[in-house]
Design goal:
heterotetramer; A alpha+beta (about 500); B mainly alpha (about 290); C alpha/beta (about 625); D mainly alpha (about 300); B: mainly alpha; MetI-like fold; C: about 625 residues; alpha/beta; Rossmann fold; 6-stranded mixed β-sheet; binds adenosine-5'-triphosphate; binds magnesium ion; cell membrane (chain B); transport (chain B); MetI-like_sf (chain B); membrane (chain B); peptide transport (chain B)
Amino acid sequence: QENVLRVVVPSSIEAKIPSGTGPAFNQGLLRNVFETLTVVSPDQKLLPGLATDWSVSDDKLTWTFRLREGVSFTDGTPFDADAVVRNIDYIMAPENRIPSLDNLGPLSGARKVDDHTVELTTSVPFSGLPVRLAHTVASMVSPASYDEYGADIPREIASGTGPFMLESFELPDRIVMTRNPDYWGGAPEIDGIDFDFINDGQTRLAGLLSGQADMNFYLSPIDRPRVAGNPDFEVLSVPSIRAFVAHLPMGLPAMQDRKVREALNLAIDREALANFIFSGSATALDSSIGPGQIGYRAAHQLPYDPERAEELFAEAGWSKNSDGILEKDGERFPTLTYLASNGRYPGDDALAQAVSGYLTEAGVPTELRIEEFATFIEDARNTARDAGWVTQIAWGFASEGASMLCQVYVESNPLDFGGYDNPELETACAEIDATFETDARIRLIEETAAWVMDDYPAIFLLAPTYEVATSTAFTGLQLSSSEYHSFAGVAPAE
Amino acid sequence: MADIAQAPAAPSGLRRWFGEAKSLGAAGTIGLVLVGLVLAGVLIGPLVWQVDPAQQQLSQAMRGMSAAHPLGTDHLGRDLLARAMHGGRLSLVMGFGSVFAAMAAGVAIGATAAMRGGWIEAVLMRLIDSLLSIPGMVQAVILVAVIGRGIVPLIVALAIYSMPIFARVAHQTARQLMNSEYVLAAVAMGSGRLRLAFVHIVPNFAAPIITIASFRVGANLLTGAALNFFGLGAQAPSVEWGLMIAEGQRYSWQAPMLTLVPGLALMITTLGLNLLGDGVRHRLDPKTRNSL
Amino acid sequence: MNTRIGDIVPDLDNRTGSAPPHLSVRNLTTSFRVGGQWKKIVRDVSFDVMPGETLAIVGESGSGKSVTSLSVMRLLDPALSRIEGEVLLAGRDLLTLTERQMQGVRGNEVSMIFQEPMTSLNPITSIGRQISEALTIHRDISGREARREAIRILEKVRIPNAVSRYDEFPHQFSGGMRQRVMIAMALATKPRLLIADEPTTALDVTIQGQILNLIKILQEEEGMSVLFITHDMGVVAEVSDRCLVMYRGEMVESGRTADLFRRGEHPYTRALISAVPPLGSMANRALPVKFPVVDVETGKAQPAAEIRDTVDKSRTPVLAVRDLTMRFDITGGLLGRRRGAVHAVENVSFDLFQGETLSLVGESGCGKSTIGRSVMRLVTPQSGEIHLDGYEVMKLNHLDLRRMRRSIQMVFQDPFASLDPRMTVGAAVTEPYLIQKLGPAAEAREKAAGLLDRVGLSGDILHRYPHEFSGGQRQRIVIARALMLDPKVIVADEAVSALDVSVKAQVCNLLLDLQDSMGIAFLFISHDMAVVERVSHRVAVMYLGEIVEIGPRAAVFENPQHPYTIKLMSAVPVPDPARRGMKREVLPDEIMSPIRPVGYEPPERAYRKVSEGHFVQLS
Amino acid sequence: MTDVVQRLLQGCISVFILFTVVFFLIRLVPGDPAVLLAGPTASQETIELIRTQFGFDRPFVEQYALFLQNALHGDFGSSIRTQLPVMREILERLPYTAVLALVGMGVAVLLGVTGGVIAAIRRNSGADVVLTSTAVLAISVPSFWLALLLMNFFAVRLGWLPSYGAGTWRHFVLPAVVIAAAQVGLIMRVTRGSVIEVLSADYIRTARAKGASSARLMIHHALRGAIVPVITVICLQIGILFNGAVVTETVFNWPGIGRFLIDSVLARDYPAIQALVLVFGVIFILINLFSDMLNAVIDPRLRRAR
Ligand SMILES: Nc1ncnc2c1ncn2[C@@H]1O[C@H](COP(=O)(O)OP(=O)(O)OP(=O)(O)O)[C@@H](O)[C@H]1O
Ligand SMILES: Nc1ncnc2c1ncn2[C@@H]1O[C@H](COP(=O)(O)OP(=O)(O)OP(=O)(O)O)[C@@H](O)[C@H]1O
Ligand SMILES: [Mg+2]
Ligand SMILES: [Mg+2]
């Protein structure tokens, strides 16, 4: 038992195969059990995973992946082309309701070429496919498990190829993993991991401090001083791919004016937010995508300039009345409902409170609506767009900027919470996907990100850093910007 | 002489019941004072301490006590004293509002059931029974889930879940009264149903109803605060004690005041209300003076 | 026991007899702490109880009778009460004993029976165990022996099937049976002194008669002394050798019961006695007679004035009831199925003429009140016809019903309960007038003042509340309220039962006066035969919802025909000390239940005419 | 026994009515279960598919009939949040809640009844004042706040007790204390009132008149008589304890059904909420029934099968 790692994590696992679960963090945990064909390294490089190399056909519609040999699932069955086809078929079938399927873009099918070669096809040319296949939604689950459990598979303990295997799932709060002694990448040193799900950050930290747990995902930044000087613990951190943005409701006539949107962006003191809400473990967002994503390049800083904001409002015809509320031709600025989730990302609700405070100060009447993530998403998709709510979310798409840009700012997409509609962006996205030369593709993403930012479809807020407190009794945890934290190398310290 | 000793409480209206604090007994008097202090702090306080409870100043977050902020500031640098005082308003509105609504509805239902009898009585009381077959907090949580979140739905939920007890007592008392000789006498002299209800029945079960109500306010205050704490009720930027505790709990290591201040405020208010309830019962119903 | 005639307070002189008194109370003063102050409730009471003798303490409600007896037993809360004086039981002063020693006295040397058989038994312990407990506390006997002994005593107090009923609980017994259990419990240890505090007040006359007899018989068998507390002069005459009269916490007179009845001196004693003329004193009179009221302060007696004949039989009866039947369904179960019915009133017919008083008598639950309520349509009877002052009562719609109520009004048993405690007397009395919209408020007040004056209350009480009045005053207020509508008929449902004897007489006189001057007809419901005899023109005797005998008062009282009537008459305690030795047969019977299964139809009844207007049911 | 069956039936009808009301109310509020089921990034087609697959597009009455039909077969649907059958989720959590409730209640009953009896016997003494004040105070403390305070102090600051989980006795200490604190006040007050009332009852005077000693009076007559309302309140409180469970479990991360309720409500997990209404209702009814039966054992007056 000494050699079992006990980890406290902030949200509970809902489904036991990666394609069935929503939150990136949970997907990331399951990554230690189920692997993908490609992987993105912590420094944002695309690397081989279960596939060793890949190429695209001349018509750019067919990709050929060569699979790693000598890999088998923990139930003993081999990992081969049949397994890949089975998994792709499963996630593509609509009746299986795979939440994050959109991440795979125009992927349309899979075909076995030989035991260790598969062909994946896309409906349109899609240069992003290898990167997207690194998303957990495309994790490889043993066909034997599919056979055994059928439609119940999301709730059952399936087999993967990863360094750990699922041992048990105890309602409601605990997942136990044991080491896979036959892992192709070398068996882990620890015997297993117990994950306990605890919502409250203080409770998690208490567990760590009292020795109930060895690792605390994530440390609330404000609690950092409590662990910092303590030799028994250390704080690891990694900049996240996430970008906190607040989508502006383009449906409101007032929001049609870019000046208003810019003014709203200038009314926020990002430095103060980073320093006081996140205790310094966040940076002001300077692009429309997060710094951890492929294709990120700093566009420009957004200063805190309330005077300029006021000027811009005035240019757009809005000036403060005696109550300090913006008014245009005797009509008050429409009241904004600021929708945010609670506890999904460290600091999300406090950030929402503070930002809405700034908005109020700028003369925009703001009400808060903070919800549990599931309800939050439902409201963001259904209500927010119609009711003109401001939706704050920390986007963190599959390591790649294009993925985010082309989903959350393209009108027809359900994730375009603000209802932002810009035909130029659709053209740009098509161009990115049709560019198969890696550097050119990245440059296109950088450019698009920059001009999207300049159109202010959202209030761009912060890029957070994830902090994990661990006991110094264990080393070797590898954190990842995209929350695919790897426990494979964790080992007891000397 | 003996007759006077047997006579129930003096009848001349609410004013007289509350007139002399002395008659509330020691506990009741303490309760009255506590509730008075809280009311003063919550109603008059903000007029004296004119600080905007929503005014945030991140650079001043979680500072201790100072002249500018007598109780310190919260995680967004807002003035804790101002927030505590404003927060109480919503808490009290919640407590009193829900009880008032519950009382009005419960008395109406109970009295109607008792006076109409027959299937109306059966249906109404069966409905009340089914409400009673689920524990209160669970009921409130489910009601909130059904009605939606926000302070108004919360008050409605609290009112619905505290209504059955009023309906039951009203029903029971009204039934007793319906059989009492003075109500029979009123019927015999030709009173209509309305007159019976408003002149003879409702005023005469004021005592048990008011006693229950005075305890209920405290209970609803706590339940409401708990629901706010769980994020099922009021939402920021509203200020409410339960909500303040919820917001402050993450910082209870760094700034215990954030949860201590609203928590103590809640406790003192509820304590005051409960003691006052004791006093009111003491006053209204000398027979049960020692029970409960 | 050579007590001198006309002994005055305090009565200490009977110690000259051969045997020393069993209980001797000297200058007993009991105070209660009320609002931090000591208030003397019983002052300077002294009396003796000789071996084998029965001493009765009488007095109106609140005069300190119970406090006296509780003081003797030291059952008052020591924190709230203080007892001074001497209580010598066989020479030993109980007041100086420790609590522990006192426990040895209670239930052993002195036993006590309380007024309320309903609440004085432990509801969750079987009656058998409650009796054997009394034995095991004081005797060193085994549980089995105690059980055997308890059963023996239960049989002695005429509990049928004592063996099987040993393990039953008080709620399974009727009131009379419970009181017998209480007696059994008190007598189990064969105490030398029994204190009985109003042991029969809560019981029906017939049951009361049995209990009194039982006590007498057991007293003779065991030879114990009895301290008997009551407010009923009839009971006093029947049970006691000597008698002590209490008034406002003091003893005002004591002496041999026979002497006291014949020539009690204290005005209060005289008021008491005159208020309960012995049954039969109305012999050979056709009309009601007022009570000779004695003023408690002065002792002056008002002679009982003759009453003129107020009955007008020439016109149609103001109230005619035909075949009235009222059954209350007993439902149960989930679906509210009918399981039976209380046949509260069965096929009752009678007439009431203008200016007449018809009394309904019978034991508790026989349907007297239900008839009253049916006539007023406060309940809706199953069938029958009621003609009231031109109205077809059973066929009225809502509005006519309200109008009909101008013709008939009701006076209830409890004058306090029949006044809304939150309404001033003025509002209460004017209320019917205003409800019926007979005139403006000013007129109503004027009329109310006039009527209050009429019932002997000054008009300046209009702004006071009911609780500020005495019981008698309150009943006058209620009567005034009933008169506001100038009704033709007044239903008086136990209208004087809750009043003290002396007040009772006054209120009865008032009713007779009103009948005289206003020609009101009374439907007088009462279980108090003495009062009924005084005030009625005719009497109807009810048994299990049916009228078993009806006729002119003199005929029914002097020539009762139906067995139940005879039983009822003989059970009434007669305030005539000469009958002290009389004993009735003690039957273990109980009041019958009027509950019948579904579908039960009572047999056809026929009546036999005894004399003019006197009918008796043939069984 | 028919009495019991009848009460059971009555209770079931109550729960059924309540459930029906909740079922329809839930469907009247805005919110789209299909979107919830589909997850954040699902496409519109997926959502439509789910809608038809689960019958969300059908009339409410039809959905209701379907639900009842399934429920009769023991199928209460799957949780939207965890996709597991809700009954399985509830049944796995129920023991945790039950054990916590019983431990907490045990502590509360022990302290409450003892305190109440002492306060009643030593009425108006210093001990009485102290006990009664404690009782009022305990009733007035917001339990979620108390839970936070205790947790912060004993688990977070001092680290004496675990801050989450449900494994050993040490895990029970804090949640049980919070639950007991919420109950002890009421139990103490009821006990005190009941004992005092019984002590002033006529039949106690009768027993004293029999010569019973104070001890005998207390044990044989007063306590037995006084215990009925206390049991009623205790059993009622066990039902109401699920209130406490909601609070305590959430703060202490206790894996019971109280927390499950809050989580389900926050996530608008309707199948779970529906099933919880039924479960809480049934538990409440059973406990009340048990209380009635227990009281009937003690108080013969309640035994009569009417
Ligand atoms: N515990 C007490 N504290 C204060 N006053 C009391 C107490 N018990 C009785 N009294 C008062 O003492 C007086 C005498 O009461 P007691 O019960 O002896 O009257 P009683 O003659 O037995 O009357 P009743 O016929 O109604 O039983 C009453 O005025 C009553 O109010
Ligand atoms: N509303 C009712 N529902 C059911 N049963 C009733 C109702 N009212 C009276 N009864 C029953 O009808 C019977 C007659 O009652 P009623 O009150 O007329 O008797 P009573 O002769 O006036 O008795 P008492 O002398 O005790 O007043 C009783 O058995 C009573 O229990
Ligand atoms: Mg008395
Ligand atoms: Mg009656």
